[in-house]
Every structure is written in structure tokens, then in C-alpha cells.
Amino acid sequence: MAASIADILPWIGKTTPLRANHSGLVGAAPEPQLIGKAGYDYRMKNLIAASELYARLGAPDLVVVDTRCSLQDISYGERAYRASHLPGAVFLDIDRDLSGPKRLHGGRHPLPEVTTLVAKLSAAGIGNSSQVVAYDDAGGMFAGRLWWLLKYLGHDAVKLLDGGWPAWLEAGYPVSTEAPKPAPQRFTPCLRPELLVTMAEVRHALDDPDTVLLDARAPERYRGELEPLDPKAGHIPGARNYPFADNLEGGKFKDIAALHQRFAGLIGAKRLIAYCGSGVSSAHNIIALDEIGVSGVQLYAGSWSDWVSFEDNPIVTGAEG
After folding, report:
1. 103 and 204 both lie in a single domain
2. How far apart are the first and last CA of the chain?
3. pLDDT tens, 165-218?
4. Domain check: are 209 and 291 in the same one?
5. Is 148 in the same domain as 289?
6. d(C-alpha 108, C-alpha 95), whole Å
7. Which of 38, 258, 269, 285 has its CA 20 to 30 A from that of 73?
């Protein structure tokens, strides 16, 4: 039986006051309301609506994380956070906190060492019992990085704010200028190594008809017509182009039916490997696929920037598939 609006959003018609522990608030506290497309089920397992998040602000297990970022301006995210952010949100930087040091190989955003990452999550107030909500202002491109890292560490209680910062502002919900000082929490990882593949595994999979590579970059980068970030243009041989931006409509994730239609050609595939430029936006496709029940998609974390760091790796330009 389909859930009613009252089941999905039981707080509609009720006023939820601001919690006293949210200081530095800017703006009024409007009544929560249903936003977005009619019929959209905000119980999509990896997403949370602005209205639902607003209703849950102040919950003791909730940790909201601002992951705003610009690939062209590395200081943008922290500046934006200091200017204003969701009440109670902490900030984690894509380069400084959610990536490791750059080396000859490994790509532009190498995965951080597990012990280092766990320490930063703990310091941000994230423990094993935390419900994490990540947001950005890029349709989830950067928030998806934290989502994937937590999944890799064995933490399933993580969602993206659907529509991110723009959706929060559009709804008229309050913002804050105060950075919280969370108490460190105990976070014990339980790694899922099966979610990750290396460059060598990808290269070996090039001859495997049961493996499908998914390139999340823009079509012009996939085809090799433009490459603003990496030294070589093109894509990994045999990869199919599924630009992460096509998961979105109006800055929010498309509904389940539209995502099913988009990825219909992948249903039943035996093995899917996602990549992008540096292992960040590829998580967006993994999230979208997970929404339609396609789980176990693997991430090539180094992605294109790692692939082209090996001189003998093959490169293809133009359209494929």
C-alpha cells in the first residue's frame, strides 16, 4: 500500500520550534511544509528533504555536515561555511579532511588513510550511532563523497540533503553563523573493501564482458573534447558515459521511476565500476543506482586522474556504447 502524505511527512500542519542549542540563527522559523515534486517519496533511503531535516534539528544522534567545495577555488567551502550554514552543522573539507595527500599516482582526491579519516569523523562528533546528513551546493556532488566514505567504513546511517543548501534557503529555513564544538565520539570502522577497486583491477576488467565501467563526467570530457583538470583527455576503453548531473532535475535527485528509466540498461549487470575525474562525483551515480536497488557498485577511487598517471594505460576518445 502506498504511503500517504501524512505517513511520509507526519509533521505537516504542526509547528516545530527552534531548538535552544542552535545559537547564531539567522532568519525566522517557518512551518515545515512539503516541497519538491508532487508524488516524490522523501523516504528514498539515501536522501532527506529539507522539511524532514528541519523537523529533526536538535535530535541527539543527528550530525549535519557541510561539504561545500569548488574544484577551482579550494578555500571556497570554508569561506561559505563561515558566512552561513545549516544550524548545528560542522564542516568537512573535501581536500583537507575527506582526501589524502596527493602523490604521483592515486588521483587528485586520493582516499584518506582510514585512521586519519576516523579521527576526523570522531572530532566532528560522528560516532557509530550517529545519523549523518551531508549537504553541499552542487546537487550532492561533494556530499556524495562523505556518503561513500561512511559506507566504505561500514556506517549506513548517512543521507544527503536533497537539493542541498539551495533547497534549504528556498524553503526559508534558518541558517547559522556559529560553528559548533561537538564532543568527540567513538567511531569504530568496519571496512567494506569489496566496494573499492584498484587501477590494476580496472585494467584487468577491460577484457571482462561482464564488467561495465560508468564514467560520471560531463559528455565533452568523456569524449575527450575538453579536459580542464587532468593532463590527458578521453576515457577508459569501453566505459559508458552516465554524467552524474543527469541524476538531477531542478537541483534535486530525480524520482525513482526516472532513475529506473535512466539506468535501465544496467539492470542485471554482473559487475559495475564507477569512476569520474578524481573519485568524487562518481559516488553520485552509486547513490542513484542504490536508490533503484542496484547495490554493490564498486568505486575506482583514483578515477581518470589516476588512470592517466600511468603512461601505458590505454585511452579512448569519442563516443562509445
Report:
1. no
2. 39
3. 999 999 999 999 999 999 999 999 999 999 999 999 999 999 999 999 999 999
4. yes
5. no
6. 9
7. 285
Q: Could you give the angle at the alpha carbon of 198 between the alpha carbons of 148 and 206, nearest 5°?
A: 115
List the CATH number of the domain containing 239: 3.40.250.10
**Order of strands, sheet of 271-275, starting from the edge strand that comes earlier in the sequence:** 196-197, 298-300, 271-275, 211-215, 240-241
The residue range of the domain holding 93 is 5-176
185 is a domain residue:
no
The verdict on residue 187 lying in a domain is no
- Inter-residue contact 11 to 32 (CB < 8 Å): yes
CA distance 291 to 259: 8
Lowest model confidence (mean pLDDT) among 10-14, 91-95, 173-177, 299-303: 10-14
Per-residue burial over 122-156, b if 16 or more Cβ lie within 10 Å, else e, is bbbbbbeebbbbbbbbbbbbbbbbbbbbbbbbebe
Q: What is the pTM of this model?
A: 0.86
Q: Lowest-pLDDT range, 12-16, 132-136, 205-209, 303-307?
A: 12-16
Amino acid, res. 259: L
Tell me the Cα Rg of the chain.
20
Active site residues: 276
Average pLDDT over residues 4-21: 25
Residues 40 and 157 in one domain: yes
All three cell numbers of 163, joined, read 537539493
| Domains in the chain, number | 2
